[in-house]
Amino acid sequence: MIISEKTQGNNMSKTLLYLLAVYIIWGSTYLGMKIATKNVPPFLLSGLRFLLAGGILLVIGYLKERTIPSRRQFLSAAFVGVLLIGIGNTTVALAVHYMPSGLVALLVAAMPAWFMGLDWAFFSKKRPSVLTSLGIVLGFLGLFLLFNPFAHHEGRSFPLWPIAVVVLGNICWATGSLMVPRLQMPTQMTSTAIQMLAGSIFSFLLSACLEEGAWNTLPDMTHQGWLAYFYLVMIGSLVGYTSYSWLTRNAPPRLTATYAYVNPIVAMFLGWAIGNEVIDSMVGISSAIVISGVVLMTLKK
Length: 301
Description:
This protein is mainly α. It is 78% helix and 0% strand. The chain has helices at 2-36, 42-65, 71-98, 101-109, 111-123, 130-147, 161-179, 188-210, 223-250, 253-256, 259-273, 281-298. The chain is globular and about 55 Å long. Belongs to the EamA transporter family. This is EamA family transporter.
């Protein structure tokens, strides 16, 4: 009985520790990407970030799992990596280069809506509940109030076109995630490493096509930019992933799902406190509506 209580206490401590890590680390990566892309273009940054993170994880995965994926498993993981990392994450890096990081985090917070909509339309055909549907409507209402293109915003200092880019990234991320259980994938760490490396190669291709002279910007990278880059690699990609992976296997799904509405709060706070991003009354009200919608979407989980 004493051993059982001790084990239970250790699991609770680990859960809180990993949950806190996901809250803060994933919430902080938005600001990290904004700092790192001040000098280096976003596609090149993403390529460099996931090349290093994927390489490190591939070595760790092989040492721990001792498996070599089949050709089919490798291609499946690479395909998912292009959707999740190459498009999903890279579009976020592009958006934070032009928009406040906290607002981009709010756009990404609508991810559960894309998951449920795409799952209903193309995968499980399971219709969302009334509560979930209400959450989706509420979430998109908050985003419309925040980015309303028909309203006159004198203080808006950023373009609206990155919104479409983030939406595309969200759809690709949700699609890739929904396809994972339906594909023959390698073991967990090896799979994630392949996904990162495939996403990295895709990002390099995008950079070669769209970012002329991108490699020439590396010598201009500031000390702050390099710190942000290594933070994204070592903390954002490796520690953040490991924490989230542990939670998905050991914590209640409804508890793990809370990262979806805590991350934007962390991102907005850090953007305001460190990145000098403005949070006015409209941003505050719209953000509260969006997060309330995400809470309703994930409540049943």
